[in-house]
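User: Okay, second chain of the day. Same drill as before: sequence in, structure tokens out.
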Amino acid sequence: MEEKKDGYPDGGPKRSLKMASVMDVIAGISQVVAQTYDGALDENGEPIKVGLKREEEYEITDKRIIDGFKVKFHGENLVISYQSEVSMKEVHDKNFKSEIAARISNVASYLKKEYRKLKGESLSLGEVDEPSMVVQATSRHRSWVQAKGTYSLSAEGLESPDAAAEPEKLDNAVKKFIEMGRDQAPKLQNVTRKE
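Assistant: Same drill. Structure tokens below.
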């Protein structure tokens, strides 16, 4: 019997020399995000530092800091959503927007670093526009911020779909169908009506 390596008889799935697909990149980023829950530890037993507010040292009398992030994909863009509980004093600070943008940027740099560790390939995230944010209040004492940063996604060897070729291909198919006319169109086998 063959010796198994990493659960596979021949050492693992064979990777072709083709470029990485978008799904490979999404799977890699999803794996990185899955390992970043609150309280997660790295391979050395140290807490994982993403750059969130909850990772900063606070006195024991302070309430628990509630913040986190998630990622989603919109076409060729990666959207990082950040949410945190904030006080109105923090909101009225002149550096509030830049601080939230820095936290989103910290998450993006963490994703790039961990993706390289996991996949051995570099991930490039280019900021598409400034992060958008919304501050909402539930009472005079409690409020939270929701912010989104959009990044263009590119990785080593990532295939970029040729969007210009698709509409042309569809247009040619439609033109060909219309040019065939009724008499030249193939007859369906399951139609039993008489003409």
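The CA atoms of residues 90 and 96 lie 7 Å apart.

User: Thanks, on to the next one.
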